Amino acid sequence: MHPTPIKHYVTPPMTEHQILEKASEIIASKFIDGIAFTDVKTTKEYLTFKLAHHKREVFAVMFLNSRHQLIEYKEIFHGTIDSAHIYPREMLKAVLKLNASTVILAHNHPSGSSVPSDADIAITQRLTKALELIDVRVLDHVIVGETATSFAEKGLL
Fold first, then answer.
1. In angstroms, rounded to a whole number, what is the distance separating the alpha carbons of residues 6 and 3?
2. How confident is the model at residue 3 (pLDDT cuts 50, 70, 90)?
3. What is the reported pTM?
């Protein structure tokens, strides 16, 4: 009787997307240990790793507690290559569900430009006003392109 041959399985190499996802997980784990998101540089670094790899526009929110520690990062709206529809009602529901007291808004520009558009400024103002009604403060809105732009740094909040 001949022994059964051993089959060797070769794991296929990781795709670029899988590598970026893994890097994002590593970066995210660095921030889950109760670090407060009070530094714009740290926030932009975190959001760049979370959003830069998307090929279409994604709008995300960092839900934070009163000490600005991350409760949850959530991509709440997905769009096309150059836009995403944002619904304040859905934002409010998510904030209340997680009992967040502050938020950082973020989205990517697949085009690579991180310059805020008039639409970006308008939706930020709309969301800020809506969240103020339930005593939730918007700390920043970060746009991720080839670089990251902070509304707080630019005086747009």
1. 9
2. low
3. 0.78
